[in-house]
């Protein structure tokens, strides 16, 4: 009996070890594909940015269109934004049965919203715009780094990414309690995208922010960025839910995002940021920069030199005086030659002497009369107060924001570019140690990365990652978690899974742990390999070229080792292909793979879902996400349709880059040929169909 027990125990341990190995491989697949999509987004954005930088508009009409390509809410002056998003002009019909809001908000309003969203009701557009208007006013008065103390509440709860998963937020409130004077929360960014209820999450969080401004704190994440929203779903969600006033709501959201604080500091000892740090992260600089200028962190307008004067352009090609922000000190003098920026003290003294002249210029540019009181934000007051402090270039400030929103920790020493995501950096334990020592901090809390258990320590428990979106990749793929900090600043974790199926699996573990665990891993694993096979199919042509480089005799066969090397050279996902091979390659004789038949099997699997030519389907699979993002970029009014004018101006942008000369009549003929149903607009299906037809042509 003892020997039998030992054998069963050994079998059990081996089986659990194999399941754990499969779980980790599945995780690597999901994460690698996610990060490669982020690379594609940044590459696409950089491409359009390059086109815009190189394009010279021939008319004011073209100039206006190009300025709108990436400039959204930030180009509106204060008065213009208020007029454009005038919620008071929107009437609420008597037939509306959803929740009503009146300001100032009360706890009952928050409760009504929670109940309404649980019942799948929608808040009227008037109330959404009114809420955004009040939220924006509040955020503009907040510092870049919020300071929170445990002295005023028993504990502070920190939540990570939610990504539009409203069930997770409901579960957090159910387990931990609603925000209140005795229950403080810090939500660490990435409220939107990927999930289907991003808007509801923002409405709830903004409501609690206004009701309990001292107890609810929101940090900005890398997805609180209108360029990222174009690809990952928030833009589409808003326009689908509010077809009439969606453009106004989206414009206000974009403007509110850039006013979100960048970090939160608890008891001067625990720093909460969304992504991470770098070896150049400077909290003093982050405290003083004007955060609202960075509407999209993905794009920075290059600095240009003109006649020896420091001329610094703002983000997204917008002059600093053109933002709706509080007046910022311009570094472009009008009456006196600026001293060299090499001598920062002399430059700062000159800057302080000319501040009034620059403010007057700002007033004139944004149509503020002398009698009209000027609204000061926290950032502008800091700028005026510290006018003789060192001045930073826009590039330096942008790098600070980019790093804290996009960076990830790594186990190796040092700090290097984050090529996996395409933005931010990787920072090692030595960078963390120096940073904590410099600012007398105990540890960092960050989010930005999905973790299987919902949280994870690294760097000798000095960096804590917290992720609150459970079942992020697939049902059962991961737990969500939040962390509670008391006056002793010792973290206490609460884990959960919001999906009902996951709860059922957890209950069945009492009767059959292995059965439940195997079923869950198998389901998640199959989803991961399905996504990976789609990725492989989308790169069929490149894979064939890579395989042929190892098949010099044209036998149609390569070794499994060469297969793994070739696949990684094409996809660059950093996956253990030899370990994944049994799930991807079902037949291989004598250690050799017939790669053409293997690729045919991949094509058959995808063609079973789409009745399209294999080579064309490959191209569409590889480019569909980029095509959809390009479509949304061109569709600047987010109507779901591209007007002839929008298409014409965009084509001029492309043709200037590709050195293609095409007359206006030629462009008109082109756009009419794409408008298959002849309704005067191009929808996404027509856009995709045109791409398909072009790819079919020899």
Automatic annotation (TrEMBL):
- Tell me any Pfam family this protein matches: PPP5
Cofactor entry: Mn(2+)
Highest taxon above the source species: Eukaryota
Q: What are the EC numbers? A: 3.1.3.16
Keyword Manganese appears in the UniProt entry: yes
Q: What keywords tag this UniProt record?
A: Calcium, Hydrolase, Manganese, Metal-binding, Repeat
Entry's Gene Ontology molecular function annotations: calcium ion binding; Hsp90 protein binding; iron ion binding; manganese ion binding; protein serine/threonine phosphatase activity
Spell out the CDD domains in the cross-references.
EFh, MPP_RdgC
Positions of the region Disordered? 308-344
Q: Which PROSITE patterns match?
A: EF_HAND_1, EF_HAND_2, IQ, SER_THR_PHOSPHATASE
**Compositional bias annotation for Polar residues:** 308-322, 331-342
One biological process GO term for this chain? negative regulation of MAPK cascade
**EF-hand domain segment(s):** 538-573, 622-657, 662-697
What InterPro entries does the database record attribute to this sequence?
Answer: Calcineurin-like_PHP (IPR004843), EF-hand-dom_pair (IPR011992), EF_Hand_1_Ca_BS (IPR018247), EF_hand_dom (IPR002048), Metallo-depent_PP-like (IPR029052), PPP_dom (IPR013235), PPP_phosphatase (IPR051134), Ser/Thr-Pase_EF-hand_contain (IPR012008)
If you read the UniProt record, what top EC class would you report for this enzyme, in one word? hydrolase
Give the residue spans that cross the bilayer: none
According to its UniProt record, which protein family does this protein belong to? Belongs to the PPP phosphatase family.
* The protein's name: Serine/threonine-protein phosphatase
Its lineage opens with: Eukaryota, Metazoa, Chordata, Craniata, Vertebrata
